[in-house]
Amino acid sequence: MLTSTLQNEDVYSAIEFVRKLNLLNRGQNVTSEMFDKGKVAFCPMMFSEYRTYKPYPWSVKKYSNFEWECLPMPAGPSGYNASQMDSLLCGISKMSSKKKMAWEFLKLLCYDETTQESLFKYSQGVSVLKNVSTSKNVTKYIQEDAPLDSSYNLEFFDDMMEQAITIKKLDGYDQLYSMADSEIRRVIGTNEDIESAMQNLNDELNILLEKQ
Question: Which helix (H) or strand (E) holds 108?
């Protein structure tokens, strides 16, 4: 049976750390629009956003007053640089009458290097094949998007993918996530005892999980 795991020291310390960061804002609500105007030093960004807004002329339209670049976020003494990775999963129906053909098609989509390179050429997705993601062709596709006086810094890209974490979404995930996110944000903005608040939230989440 699935259970919530919010009652642990790592969660408590993470919430306390964000509380301290918020105190540095002195009550100011930091938004993504503030980053767009160059008023915020750091902002989490998806790889698709990096590819979309780094090139000219989009970089000028969205980020016109400053230069910017991607770099790994710092990690604390007990943490590491982990990025969230959203994956697209494919499968074969057990009711399929053409399982062999379906398997060959799946391999074409996921294992064929030419097909995987097309992800970089025609979209902002990332290949599941490491040798494709680090190939010269892929570097060329990405570099073609950049303005003449700029270049993509992909030195950190391989390490980022190695440490990426795939979120496993169960039935009702969005509801559970929204509930947990809302309560944690509320607790961060108060002086409530974090451990007690997480115990209450944990119990509420486990009630919902029992119904799954």
Answer: helix 99-110
